[in-house]
Amino acid sequence: MDKIKVLLAEDELALAHIVRESLEEAGFEVVLCANGEAALLKYKEYKPDILALDVMMPKMDGFELARKIREADKTTPIIFLTAKSQPKDVVAGFESGANDYLKKPFSVEELIVRMRVLLSTNRLLALKPSDRLVKEQYQISNLLFNPAKNTLQQGINTWQLTARESEILKLLCKNQHEVLTRKILLDTIWGDDTFFNARSLDVFITKLRRHLAADPNIQIINIRGVGYKLVW
């Protein structure tokens, strides 16, 4: 079986080498870049399965790098590694296209777990028979949601969702017109309901609302202090 290819962009060389060695010991294939510009070039050449990006890098920061990658690639998982952990930084990270956000200092074991979760979600399409995937669709008013392909379709128009957006929308669809608690969402998708992950959920709900705005009949209603309900 081919090794999972990781593009690691980190300008703290001591940390970068520790992370790379640990990932390689865990069976990953790792390419290391020390700045954002080099990482963008290597991304185009290397076609990684997942990217782990520092935010504060010379020449091009992680946010800008993620935005450039997302212009053409909506699905390859991106996880930020950063000491910038204020709510506004978390929001900026997810708005730029990240799937996850790991605060420094972190354990490499936690990084590996988070990467495997992102990769397992991203690889579902290759692990299931195509005819089964086609059937797993949800009609949301006049939008067609395909969680296997991470797409929303309205007539001839198609919008690509991130893997994390698709996970959340799928849970909402399965519980349509019922309140889905924040705790269930957080525990199911992130594994815990910490404040940090709760802020991430808020960002993804906002992004989903923008996608669903193509049909004004669809709403994700916030039940204050409880959770969310998808209605149309």
TrEMBL record:
A biological process from GO: regulation of DNA-templated transcription
OmpR/PhoB-type domain boundaries: 135-232
Response regulatory domain mapped to chain residues: 5-119
Keywords, sorted A to Z: DNA-binding, Phosphoprotein, Two-component regulatory system
Keyword Cell cycle set for record: no
Pfam families in the cross-refs: Response_reg, Trans_reg_C
GO molecular function: phosphorelay response regulator activity; transcription cis-regulatory region binding
Gene3D superfamilies reported in the protein's UniProt record: 3.40.50.2300, Winged helix-like DNA-binding domain superfamily/Winged helix DNA-binding domain
GO cellular component annotations of the record: cytosol; protein-DNA complex
DNA-binding region: 135-232
Matches recorded under SUPFAM superfamilies: C-terminal effector domain of the bipartite response regulators (SSF46894), CheY-like (SSF52172)
The keyword DNA-binding belongs to this UniProt entry's keyword annotation: yes
Chain positions found as 4-aspartylphosphate: D54
Any coiled-coil regions, as ranges: none
CDD domains: REC_OmpR (cd17574), trans_reg_C (cd00383)
PANTHER family: PHOSPHATE REGULON TRANSCRIPTIONAL REGULATORY PROTEIN PHOB, REGULATOR OF RPOS
Protein name, entry field: Response regulator transcription factor
Organism: Mucilaginibacter psychrotolerans
Origin organism lineage: Bacteria, Pseudomonadati, Bacteroidota, Sphingobacteriia, Sphingobacteriales
